[in-house]
Amino acid sequence: MNMQKTSHATIKGGACTDLRHDSAIKHVTGRAQYCDDIAEPAGTLHAYLGLSTKAHARLRKVDLEAVRAAPGVIGVLTADDIPGVNDVSPTGRNDEPIFATDKVEFWGQPMFAVVAETRDAARRAAKLAQIDYEDLPYALDPETAQEAGMGYVTPPLTLKRGDAAEAMAAAAHRIKGKMRVGGQDHMYLEGHIAFAIPGEDDDVIVHSSTQHPSEAQHMVAHVLGVPSSAVVINVRRMGGGFGGKETQMNLFCSVAAVAAKKWNRAVKIRPDRDDDMSATGKRHDFVIDYEVGFDDEGVITAVTGEFAARCGFSSDLSGPVTDRALFHADNAYYYPNVLLNSHPMKTNTVSNTAFRGFGGPQGVIAAERIMEEIAYHRGLDSLEVRKRNFYSEGGRDVTPYHQTVEDNIAPRICEELADSADYAVRRQAVLEWNAKGGSIRKGIALTPVKFGISFTATWYNQAGALLHIYSDGSVHLNHGGTEMGQGLNTKIAQVVADELQVDFDTIKITKTTTEKVPNTSATAASSGSDLNGMAARDAARQIKDRLVAFAAAQWNTDADAVRFLPNAVQVGDEVLSFPDFIKQAYMARVHLSAAGFYKTPKIHWDRETGQGRPFYYYAYGAACSEVSVDTLTGEYRVERTDILHDVGKSLNPIIDVGQIEGAFIQGMGWLTTEELWWDAQGQLRTHAPSTYKIPLASDRPRIFNTNLATWSENKEHTIKRSKAVGEPPFMLGISVFEALSHAVASVADYRECPRLDAPATPERVLIAIERLRG
Which residues have CB under 8 Å from 509's CB, separation 6+? Predict the structure, then answer.
């Protein structure tokens, strides 16, 4: 045997170390392959959607003759051409048709699809349809929908503990308020796209930019009327997702697949940005009515909240989104008596969907508004009010959904950030600056976040992975998660590298495909690393167990004498390079492939009673932001932000810091510049980058300090004791919103809460200033 001594240097790119994104160089050089970069087979056709131009109307006549006669057009798809079921509802409620039939329920709803030789021909032909509409009444926002009796798109939720009515009546102080929280477009760099290639029999392969390949697979099968086993969905990477590609891609995958099978030619569909924004869902906007009772010290005794959401014409994911808003309406605070109700309102707008935080941000901002209200009422620093209401021991540790908060590090996070950011000194400086009475006012705020991690649909908390070790020692990794720029593939490969003790570069990360790992969950709910990391580790450990048994038998020694060293395996006193050891295992017919699996323990949830443990653990963080506001124009800028965030024992610190910074900026955009606006006829007018303003590089805080709570390790048994990082830091942007409020409040000597609505555009800031001055 070729036994040899090797050095025992540390592997390159193991878990819990800084490592750049595996595709970073490809991203910045343009070599990363996205769905639209796949070479098109000869004869590829292109589809384009025909969209409605009414918010709610009966379709008296749909004349498509001019569409069919247009140059380059091969044919048109309508509901009559769907071989299976005309529905892509992710919840199975049969309320989301691919193509409208007798009526349309929002401006931008697909009615048909043109299929042509070129994309340009299909796009031009789609505009030629002659539609005879009969107008019907419509409601565009939650309040109008409530007044019109539109009803719910999905059953509402109630969370309660104690007697909120009795405690409210007995409270020393009570405040009622209303808050409007705007929606948000995902504005991914890569829009929706699907590319279907027909196969023999029922088979079809669909390349797509989707966060949920298994759901897309099931939907395409449902629409084609074939078994799921006939459909393959492939995803190498997405150019951003943020939740907008969890369910919304079902429509595009289905249209491409139906057209491909009908004409037996490859078909691609890629809408323009304007149509993408008009026809696909957003973050839900909410109208929140709240009441809080509290004592002289600002300690809460009771909270009630009514959370009405603009859900759109169908259910989509509005049920779990509005549920999660209630789950996070406490944020990091204990409510002794609480009653919270969701109102998922049907509206004649596009069906809203998942977006980073999944309803959680809309709940958290309500909690922070309540803290702000109490602070102004009692003349206190809002941070002091937050501290007095934090979850703590001694019975103050049970959430409105009856889960006990077992690892509460919010107080420590906030204390450390207040110290490192010099919050007290800077707040005093802000007060002194504002006391001078100039036109430029400053504001500062420190806000925390406590965010529950797990899918509230318990069955989604599972994952699979497939791992091969080839006879030359190279490793092939596949898992059920999807890569949308967040570095998931990098982290999972680091986990495998650590388990096998091989360099990161020896591991080949392959596309996500339903052919390799079945029944996967969406890459959402910040669960990608938690679930898929554990599944990949399980696969690696299965193979390791076989290799250890082989080595112990081959070398006639105990299993304890077999050790995996960096890029080598030690058996007794002898050491083999990893490739040599694997070669010998192959020659001895050791199985070098494994399917790993993981399901999250401990979680359970009873929606009927509003009680359970929906979350495996909580992630925490805090941000301190300072702003300057021009009281003559309402314009503002963020001067400084300091962040301290808890990711447990980080799988990749440098990637996590990037995620935190990106989430903060996106959250800041949601609350400041990103405004969705529908006109009186129901048409979305902010449907392009020219009218919808995401933050620019120049909008970032002038000073931006981001740090991880390096002392934190997850109390629960997660992968390497890490914590999720995708969604929790999004809510840190609330610190900017609160700082703006603080600056505005100064014009009335901080006597009252300015009650800014979100997004706090310069116009809204100026209106609030003038109202307080008046």
Answer: 22, 477, 489, 490, 492, 493
CA 565 to chain centre: 38
pLDDT at 665 over 90: yes
Residue 216 has, within 13 A of its CA and on its CB side, a CA count of: 38
C-alpha to C-alpha distances, 610 to 3, 77, 451, nearest whole angstrom: 62, 44, 18
pLDDT tens digits, one per residue of 511-522: 999 999 999 999
Q: Is 720 in contact with 492 (CB distance < 8 Å)? A: no
**CA–CA distance, 665 with 683 (Å, rounded to integer):** 28
Residue 356 near residue 726, CB atoms below 8 Å: yes
How many Å is the maximal CA-CA distance in the chain? Answer: 90
Q: Is the dihedral of CA 577, 579, 584, 585 positive or negative?
A: positive
The Cα–Cα gap between 576 and 303 comes to: 65
pLDDT score recorded for residue 9: 84
Q: Return the half-sphere exposure (C-beta side, CA atoms, 13 A cut-off) of residue 406.
A: 10
Pairing of strands 267-269, 45-51: parallel
pTM of the model: 0.97
Active site residues: 727
Q: Do 593 and 706 form a contact (C-beta atoms < 8 A)?
A: no
Q: What pLDDT sits at residue 662?
A: 97
Task: Say if residue 759 is preceded by a cis peptide, omega within 30 of 0.
Answer: yes
Residue 8: the pLDDT is 56
CA of residue 58 relative to chain centroid, distance: 35
SS3 content of the chain, % helix, strand, coil (to 5): 35, 25, 40
Sign of the dihedral defined by the CA atoms of residues 735, 741, 747, 749, in that order: negative
Model confidence pLDDT, tens digit, residues 720-772? 999 999 999 999 999 999 999 999 999 999 999 999 999 999 999 999 999 99
